[in-house]
Amino acid sequence: MFTLPRPTRRLAITLVLIGGIAALAASLAPAVSAQGSCGKSGCVDVVAVDGLIDEIEANFMIDSIERANAAGDVVGVVLQFDSAGSAVSDTRLDQVAAAIQGSGIPVSIWIGASGSYALGGAAELAQVADSSGITPGSKIGDVGSQRLDEQQFGDLFAGRAAAGLTRTFSGEAAVKAGLVDRFDPTLVDHVGNLDSVETKVVKVDGREQKQPVQRVRLSKLSLQVQLMHTAASPSVAYLLLVIGLGLLLFEFFTAGVGVAGVIGAVFVLLAGFGVAELPFTSWALALLLFSFFGFAIDMQTGVPRLWTIISMVAFSVGSVFLFVEFRPTWIALLAGIAGMGVVVFSGMPAMIRTRFATPTIGREWMIGELGEASSEINPEGMVLIRGAQWRARTNRATPVLVGDSIRVVEIDGLVLGVEPEEGGAMDYREMRSGRKGEPEPEADPETESQVEGPAK
Q1: What is the total count of domains within the chain?
Q2: Sign of the alpha-carbon dihedral angle for 220, 226, 232, 236
Q3: In a domain, 72, yes or no
Q4: Are 81 and 196 in the same domain?
Q5: What is the average pLDDT value for the chain, to the nearest integer?
Q6: Where does a domain end: 322, 356, 390?
Q7: CA dist., res. 331 & res. 240, Å (int)
Q8: Same domain assignment for residues 398 and 257
Q9: Residue 204 shares a structural domain with residue 163
Q10: Is residue 429 predicted with pLDDT exceeding 60?
């Protein structure tokens, strides 16, 4: 009966796992958390937009605005921004802006809480909203060039607001620059300042504050969709890709599909989604994938060589240039590159040699065995003995060259001590055969058995 080789079976099972997890992830709908019903006075929907505006967040904003318009008892929508920019196409960003501008109920944007951002495409959306506010310490700007269609939305950064194309402004400075309408320290302040909202005046910490009469409902991405959205951030997508491919490579050299293979498959799936959502460099991604093939070539021998060095260079270059517009943090990059270096130069080779090497016990028969140097031994290298590769070391000052015959003289753990066949110490067999004209002494069977050890 025909059976696939074990490495092929492991790869096939891993690919099936990836396909199954992909089908499961595809079934996840971009649902939002339950909001509850509005009271008699209606309600205000607050929609949290965190992280880069990817396809998930774009759908979330458009769907939230459409549901609010269809509900009939929602008096306003507040998009709460903390976003470093937009990762969707210009056309898709136009669709989000059109949903905001064309809404039948007012849509405002609040950049908060303190320390939040509305950069790039997020800052552009703030210009098309009915109103906008910002908290102390939050920033807006750094647009670069306007991506929204000027024929449809006009020049959004004319006059004093043009400074927002190249700079960021925070707090009240953003109001003075014309990038936002109001300085709203809290969400309650922002909602209370909306024209469509009924308010009552109360004193809070000694100051008067407008508070909405209508109920305020908060909408967030569901846990499953939030997981996919998080995977679309540059640092997370990069680390998931590196760790996932590393775990799959590890699993390929072990004796079955286990925890490492399943986790690696999940990580690669999430990383694939994240990379697809972000602007990425194709050649850099190809370098990253190529590097793992190179690592695998040297891992088969258990010793890092030329392919490991070439692949490490390719891996480092691919890591730096994978994402250009939205880069991973330097901490994530250093962790990925340094971690991979430790794994391929030390961790994985040691693990593979330990797992697949012949045990030290019972290898005494190799003492005196002849072989061939498959790489230069100076002082360490590789030798070929009975068709198997072994790591070897010589204590000779002169290196053993590739192709030279060698003799095993000692065993130190997983490393063989060797010397050149020519010029090395002769073992007892050569000593007996080299005595010309002298009768060979009769061998004591018991003594010879102890010297030779187990039969080969």
Answers
A1: 3
A2: positive
A3: yes
A4: yes
A5: 82
A6: 356
A7: 14
A8: no
A9: yes
A10: no
The pLDDT of residue 395 is 76
Please, are residues 308 and 298 in contact by the beta-carbon 8 Å criterion?
yes
Q: What is the pLDDT of residues 276-304, one digit of tens each?
A: 988 899 999 999 999 999 888 877 766 78
Closest CA to 415 of 396, 376, 397, 389: 389
The pLDDT, as a whole number, for residue 18 is 52
CATH of the domain at 377: 2.40.50.140
The pLDDT of residue 238 is above 50: yes
What's the whole-number mean pLDDT along residues 9-36? 50
Angle between helices 6-26 and 259-277 (to 10 degrees): 50
Distance between CA atoms of 16 and 192, rounded to whole angstroms? 54
Per-residue pLDDT at 72:
86
Residues 86, 122 contacting (CB under 8 angstroms): yes
Q: Is residue 30 part of a domain?
A: no
Please state the pTM of the whole predicted model: 0.66
Q: What's the pLDDT score for residue 456? A: 39
Residue 445 has pLDDT above 70, yes or no: no
Same-domain pairing of 406 and 441? yes
Last residue of a domain, one of 356, 386, 411: 356
How large a percentage of the chain has pLDDT more than 70? Answer: 79
Question: Is the CB of residue 322 less than 8 Å from the CB of residue 371?
Answer: no
175 and 48 within one domain: yes
Q: Tell me the pLDDT band of 439, cut-offs 50, 70 and 90.
A: low
In angstroms, the CA 36 to CA 234 distance is: 34
Judge whether 218 lies within some domain.
no
Q: Is the previous residue joined to 162 through a cis bond, with omega within 30 degrees of 0?
A: no
Distances (CA, A) of 76 to 68, 87, 209, 259: 8, 27, 19, 48
146 and 282 inside one domain? no
Which token pair is 363?
Answer: 């290898």
Q: Which CATH number is 175's domain given?
A: 3.90.226.10
Give the span between the Cα atoms of 399 and 338, in whole angstroms.
Answer: 32
- Decide if 255 contacts 295 (C-beta within 8 A): no
Q: What is the pLDDT of residue 444?
A: 52
The string of pLDDT tens digits covering residues 143-168 is 999 999 999 999 999 999 999 999 99
CB 238 within 8 A of CB 322: yes
**Domain region containing 186:** 43-213
pLDDT surpasses 90 at 236:
yes
